[in-house]
Amino acid sequence: MHNSQVIYQSQDELGQITVHEDGQYRLLSFAKGDEQSRISLSKPNVLQHEYTQAMMLSLLFCKPKRATVLGLGGGCLIRALLDTVPGIKLTAVELRPEVIKIAEKYFHLPRSKRLQIVEQDATSYIAKTQDKKVDLLFTDLYLETGMDKAVIAENFIENCDKQLKSEGWLVINCWEGDHDYTNLIELLRNYFIDIRSMNTSSGNWVILAGKRINYQTAKALKQDALKLSSDLDFQLSKWLNRLAEV
Predict the structure, then answer these.
(1) Is this prediction's pTM over 0.85?
(2) 38, 155, 190 from 70: Cα distances, Å
(3) What is the pLDDT along the chain (246 residues), one digit of tens a residue?
(4) Residues 6+ away with beta carbon under 8 Å from 113
């Protein structure tokens, strides 16, 4: 962000947390040059990062009643899901209590009866059997040093699979420059049948993995994307065009 100013800064055992603002956008970062969350001050409900927009492609393959998001950040993905999916019940899992406070104070994270926030390590949370399985499970786990490597571990993927309903979908935000993801795709094949992915120009690699094959035609998906775009206030078709089967 050019000409930005720090409006809040704090430190916890995992590192520094900073909120910047430049008059147009507000940004959450965990390290210099890093962007964890970004909102437009004029349209705070509209997703700004390419990878979060791409993650919303999952709504074309699944009509979720329940979803879990691992990694809260500024809560942008949570707010978009609450706004877009009527009646959805969400659980957000976040390790750092300071991040939760910042999301509520600076990034308009709503207080809702449909939202439960769990302050816990995501890998510990996902390892335990929850009361109810979910339709969608999002992983967006990043630290000061980059993507949490736990995401590409076999026990993590297996535990994600156990949290999902029989027709559920796992959505993973990866950073393509950090790792060779060939092993991750092969690992996902042990638990998921329908695997699709796309790259964004920002360096993120978004993976959608379904437990059952989605047989919708390209035409039907495009029509649904057009309808959903009006609710999201950005062109979802842009990302659908990049999505490919793996």
Answers:
(1) yes
(2) 18, 15, 21
(3) 567 899 999 999 989 999 999 999 999 998 887 888 999 999 999 999 999 999 999 999 999 999 999 999 999 999 999 999 999 999 999 999 999 999 999 999 999 999 999 999 999 999 998 889 999 999 988 766 667 677 778 899 999 999 999 999 999 998 766 556 778 899 999 999 999 999 998 888 999 999 999 999 999 999 999 999 999 999 999 999 999 999
(4) none
